[in-house]
Amino acid sequence: MDTKPGVVMIGLGYIGLPTAALIAQNKTYVHGVDINPKVVETVNNGKIHIIEPELDQAVENAVKGGYLKASVTPVEADTYLIVVPTPFKGKNEPDISFVESATKGIIPLLKEGDLYIIESTSPIGTTEKMLNLIYGERPELKDKLYVAYCPERVLPGNVMYELVHNDRVIGGVDQKSTDKAADFYRQFIKGDLHKTNARTAEMCKLVENSSRDVQIAFANELSLICDKADINVWELIQLANKHPRVNILQPGCGVGGHCIAVDPYFIVADYPMESQIIGKAREINNYKSFWCAEKVKNAKLEFELKNGKKPRIALMGLAFKPNIDDLRESPAKYIAQKVLQNANNEEYYIVEPNIESHNIFKLTDYAEAAEKADIVVFLVAHDEFKGLNIPENKVVLDFCGVLN
Ligand SMILES: NC(=O)c1ccc[n+]([C@@H]2O[C@H](COP(=O)([O-])OP(=O)(O)OC[C@H]3O[C@@H](n4cnc5c(N)ncnc54)[C@H](O)[C@@H]3O)[C@@H](O)[C@H]2O)c1
């Protein structure tokens, strides 16, 4: 690329790469940076390293058109976007070291008037911390940069559409930063842009996912109560939701994925005394997975006592939610692991129709597993499972309501 890039995108993963491709589609030169040389090589070949509909074409066009180039090192630009991971360290403590190191990498390149935006899901105060880090090393730039936070809220599988059409919350460290960041996003986003400050924008992302987590925890708690009270929780929720102002979510075998099961801890870690419900919801949703694994164990023992032989057990689904191939933080995977840890010569069929193979689990076709098993455990409500006709002589544990 001979032309000077307008944007440096740091982190070319599930969020950074689609965003880079979108900006490039808009005929802005993007210099993508990733510490993983394989990612850089793949992108420079016009290919993608993640599964996301329509992304392959967008990246191919952007690279062919000369609007997107990847490298392991950043270059000078006018706008810098930080879209690197923010995982845990220790016991559910957010780890912002990736954001820090990405920021340190561009500090020498910054100049007056540049725009610096963090999109990574971050604990409250991260943007201010990075601001202090930058001004600590480059005091001459104080008040001469635009610094903002803008969280991402796309749904994997529909990223290319949602990137453009979702509303965005944009919070600068001051009003001029907020305005500048909003002007930047307005070039390629059709959704509404909601202006606020950096701390509120950071909290907003965490609250969106915590809200889902708390509501799912309520449904999961109901499922535990109903199991003891001999009430069908699916019917109960359907009936309760007939109330015009009640909308209870569906229970499941826990909560997974890299957002809802993770982000609430970013609040709890910093505000443990104040975040009682948020913390408890995490506990309930984690407990639900443990409870499901115990239920399988008990069903196994009961079968053996009753039939005098070891059961064949089908574990249906490993993904963290229906109809996807993503196993990150998946409660179904956790349950399968826990059940297999307690295996005692039973035969197991592990099923995940959305992936071809797994490095730990030997996978079985879903129809074959359901047919051969004595105990069929539904962990994820994949569409494939909905049409299954399970004979009455089999033990069925439906933790996700796929048969309801
Ligand atoms: N994936 C989602 O659906 C989603 C949705 C909303 C928010 N987020 C948030 O967005 C952020 C990024 O998530 P993701 O799913 O894109 O992560 P990802 O793991 O898919 O990609 C991150 C990329 O950053 C690279 N990287 C790490 N440190 C780097 C550094 N110092 N310099 C350059 N590259 C570096 C990694 O090699 C990786 O390719 C996270 O904070 C996540 O919580 C993700």
TrEMBL record:
Example GO biological process: polysaccharide biosynthetic process
Record keywords: NAD, Oxidoreductase
Domain UDP-glucose/GDP-mannose dehydrogenase C-terminal, residue spans: 314-402
Keyword rRNA-binding: no
InterPro entries xrefs: 6-PGluconate_DH-like_C_sf (IPR008927), NAD(P)-bd_dom_sf (IPR036291), UDP-Glc/GDP-Man (IPR017476), UDP-Glc/GDP-Man_DH_C (IPR014027), UDP-Glc/GDP-Man_DH_C_sf (IPR036220), UDP-Glc/GDP-Man_DH_dimer (IPR014026), UDP-Glc/GDP-Man_DH_N (IPR001732), UDP_ManNAc/GlcNAc_DH (IPR028359)
Keyword tRNA-binding: no
GO molecular function: NAD binding; oxidoreductase activity, acting on the CH-CH group of donors, NAD or NADP as acceptor; oxidoreductase activity, acting on the CH-OH group of donors, NAD or NADP as acceptor
Superkingdom of source: Bacteria
SMART domains linked: UDPG_MGDP_dh_C
Family: Belongs to the UDP-glucose/GDP-mannose dehydrogenase family.
The protein's name in its UniProt record: UDP-N-acetyl-D-mannosaminuronic acid dehydrogenase
